[in-house]
Amino acid sequence: MKRYITLVLALVLMGGYGCNREVVSGLDDSVMLKTQQLLDSYNKALIDAPNGWIIQIKTNEGFYRFWMEFKEGGIVNMLTDNIRLASSSTTVQESFYSIQQKQRATIVFETYSYLSVLNDPDNGISGGSGHVGLETDFEFEVDSFVNGVFELTGRINRVQARMIQATQDQKDGILLGGMVQEIQDLGRVSGGINNHRYIEVDGKKIGLLIKPRTTLAFYTKASGSEYVQSYPMVEVASRDLNLDNPMNVDGLIIDGFRWDQQGQKYYALSGGTEYEVKSSTTPPIQLYEIFGHGKPFNKLRLNSSTVSGYGYSGLTFLLLTLLAGPVSSVDYTFEIDDDGMEFMHVSINISTGGSTIPI
Q1: H helix or E strand, kind and range, residue 258
Q2: What is each CA distance from 300 to 26, 37, 304, 333, 339, in whole angstroms?
């Protein structure tokens, strides 16, 4: 009987203790509440930015820039620097977004927009290949939000993205089509035919190809020719280029490029040292040093979109010209590339009868 009473008393005491124990966090609504508060705080930050946000989103071509203005009701207005879309920098597009808790807090762009164009499987729309668009994202996990800067990662392709608040001056310039204009201007100063860019370090020339979405440095050394590639983030207004990863060029670490507005030129930044990006009519490295079997560039393709002439296709006109009279020289337009990365253009001209005919 004593044992029975003792057992009952022990059960009663245990039950009483169980009823008075503290609630363990995670077994009630506290986690859901904190999560919703976090999502709400992110949404408030997006909406409260008086001049909107500039977001740099990585693709397989490099970074694309967007200006976005978030509003109540899940509305987002946007512009972008996609030069394939004539209206993308001047016609504000309205779309919808939400902030959801998935595996992490996630900004989701829910309806078709300028951002969706980059993901469109139609190669003619996105400019991609293989019907995968430019392999970017439209759902972005929030990695951090510190000092007004969102660091983001795409949910599917894990692309990098960064979002910072725009200034009033930046917004004013963007609404006038500034982002596409900057990309076009950068294309004109980045080098090209008979305008080769390079820096000189200790008497050695390092060739540069500075494009709006891809930056390339190429050089030779005793073991052969090499190149390194990085993707620049073009700063709105200043046009400075911040590289997503510094380029190690034979021991020289290039962190980015500073645009000199007065001199209309770039300077390569390495630590505290600046190297002027110079221009030359002759390439700093000869083609045979970097192009060929076992070398950085080993593919040659004719770009038919650059070949035209007097109502004939380029090839037809070439054949007609060759048959029509003596030809003193033929310069071919071609591109060399490595895994689809365009590197160089060369003009196509046919010289015959004392005149040069572009085709």
Answers
A1: strand 252-260
A2: 60, 55, 13, 11, 11
Q: Are strands 160-165 and 196-201 parallel, antiparallel or unpaired?
A: unpaired
pLDDT tens-place string over residues 69-79: 999 999 999 99
Integer Cα distance of 248 and 151 in angstroms: 24
For residue 197, what are the contacts with CB-CB under 8 A and spacing of at least 6? Answer: 190, 191, 207, 208, 209, 210, 277, 278, 279
Query: pTM of the entire structure?
Result: 0.70
DSSP 22-45: PPPTTSSSHHHHHHHHHHHHHHHH
Confidence of residue 338 (pLDDT cuts 50, 70, 90): very low
CA angle, 38 then 44 then 45, to 5°: 95
The token pair that represents 341 in the structure block: 């990365």
Q: Three-class SS string for 127-176?
A: CCCCCCCCCCCCEEEEEEEECCEEEEEECCCCCEEEEEECCHHHHHHHHC
State the DSSP H helix or E strand holding residue 105, giving kind and residue range, or none if neither: strand 105-109
pLDDT tens sequence across 102-153:
989 999 999 999 999 998 988 888 888 888 889 999 999 999 999 999 999 9
Report which of residues 236 and 246 the model is more confident about: 246
